Amino acid sequence: MKYRSIKKKITILYTGCIAIVLLIVLAGMLFYIKNIETNAAEEELQGKSDAFYGRIQIQGEAFTIPADLEFYNDGVIISVYDNDGTPVAGSIPSNFPIQTELKDGIYQRIEQGDDHWIVRDKGYEYAEGKVLWIRAISTVYGIERAAGQITAAVGIAFLIMTGFIAGIGFRMLSAALKPVDVICSEAGEISKGEDLSKRLTLPQTRDEMYRLTIEFNQMFDRLEDSFEAEKQFSSDVSHELRTPLSVIRSQCEYMLGEAKTEEEAGEIRVILNQAEKVIQLITQLLTISRCERGGEYFQKQEFNFSFMAEMVVDTLQEMAEEKQIELSADIEENLKIIGEETLLMRMLMNLIENAIYYGKEHGFVKVKIRQDGDRICGSVQDNGIGIAEENLDKIWKRFYREDKSRSNTTNGTGLGLAMVKWIVQLHHGEIKVFSEKGAGSEFVFYIPNELNFKGK
User: Fold this and answer.
1) Residue 231 and residue 292 in contact, taking contact as beta carbons nearer than 8 Å
2) pLDDT of residue 380
3) How far apart are the first and last CA of the chain?
4) What is the DSSP letter of 105?
5) What residues are paired with 122 via a beta bridge?
6) Using CA of residue 76, residue 77, residue 80, residue 86, what is the dihedral sign?
7) Residue 280 near residue 413 (C-beta atoms within 8 A)
8) Whole-angstrom Cα distance, residue 10 to residue 26?
9) Half-sphere exposure for 235 (CA within 13 Å, toward CB)
10) 118 Ramachandran zone, left/alpha/beta (phi>0; psi -120 to 50)
11) DSSP string computed for 280-295
12) Phi and psi at residue 366, to the nearest 5°
């Protein structure tokens, strides 16, 4: 799902609402202004028409237009028509349609091509049954020009005000939601890190964000207590089980020496093998638990990683041969590293053992280790059963097995990859897995050459 910022969504929402209201207000203002201008033009036509008629001399059924009476005044053109609508004086604008009907007291808008006029006709009775028509014509160019200028100004003002409102609103929202960004950032660091004792920084203002931070910190308190209880339980159980298991193993070894028949010896070996398997599981659990709880500290030392890796490969050759898997190694010579040798040996051994466990007969396991800048890069590749894409993030969990049917047919404890990831993280490195179901897997790890660390 595409990420969408709350700040942007709220800004767009309220800016849209304000823009609509602002648009309605400005449109109303524009309509009002245009009406005022139109009304002013119509009043001017009426005034000019009445004033012109007032200068005409009426004598019975005859009328006389004074010679000094102007037919053009302040942009208004006057024309006079007799009772039959025949022009008798005055003029009309060029291109004005002369067939335009006379309508008493009606304001008409006449368009001819690009020319636009507003017209007022008025019939004045001056004798029995006779009417003198006076037509006042004014171009609307000035009105339209003013309306266009006002419309442009209103449009520019609308854009400027909308942008200003959006900018100010976004800044205000950013300031108001800044504590949310801080909470997300700090919560992400706590989630990705290994130290659950960290807490979110409390905002200075006691508002909703302050309450939210308090709730998050209380949640982290409960999570930390839960994890600590789990670690303590694993440590205590592992420790308590070591003694009885050691007794079982020693007794099995004694009984194996006293066995009188091969059948009896075989049954004792089954018990002994299972005891060894549980002891191995307990040992790994206890190691991880102690390290996580700070019960063990590791001293860094320089050692030859290449020699250690070759030794691990040689040690596991017999296991690979038993399953008819070709185990090969391409290890760059004399790679020096500063770290905990025992743990790094266990890390590499777990990766190779895991590849052999889930490999195919007559398949291969390839180990490659080389220098990569200021770190060592290693990979363990096989053409075994592979891992489904949806399960790649689950394999690092303790006791997780993708192939549940094989949990009783291998010697694994289900802690191998969990311990691998923990060891890599302890050395400030990283590990990745690339796999395809049915085609095999490749684990790639990076360990810095020099570091200054202390076990957690």
Assistant:
1) yes
2) 94
3) 37
4) T
5) 134
6) negative
7) yes
8) 24
9) 16
10) beta
11) HHHHHHHHHHHHHTT-
12) -115, 125
Question: Please, are residues 318 and 285 in contact by the beta-carbon 8 Å criterion?
Answer: no
| Amino acid symbol at 323 | K
- Each residue of 223-234: pLDDT tens digit? 777 767 766 666
- pLDDT for position 451: 45
The residue whose two tokens read 């095999």 is 440
**The dihedral formed by the CA atoms of 228, 234, 237 and 241, expressed in degrees to the nearest 10:** -150
Asked whether 324 and 362 are in contact (CB, 8 A), the reply is yes
Show Cβ contacts of residue 329 under 8 Å, excluding neighbours closer than 6 positions. 309, 310, 313, 366, 367, 368, 369
CA dist 391 and 177 (Å) reads 36
Q: How many residues does the chain have?
A: 456
Residue ranges of the chain whose pLDDT lies below 70: 1-4, 141-147, 192-196, 227, 230-240, 242, 284-298, 398-414, 450-456
β-pair type (364-372, 326-331) = parallel
Geometric angle at alpha carbon 143, from 141 and 148, rounded to 5°: 90
Would strands 130-139 and 375-382 be described as parallel, antiparallel, or unpaired?
A: unpaired
CA distances (Å), origin 51, targets 43, 48, 137, 214 = 12, 5, 14, 83
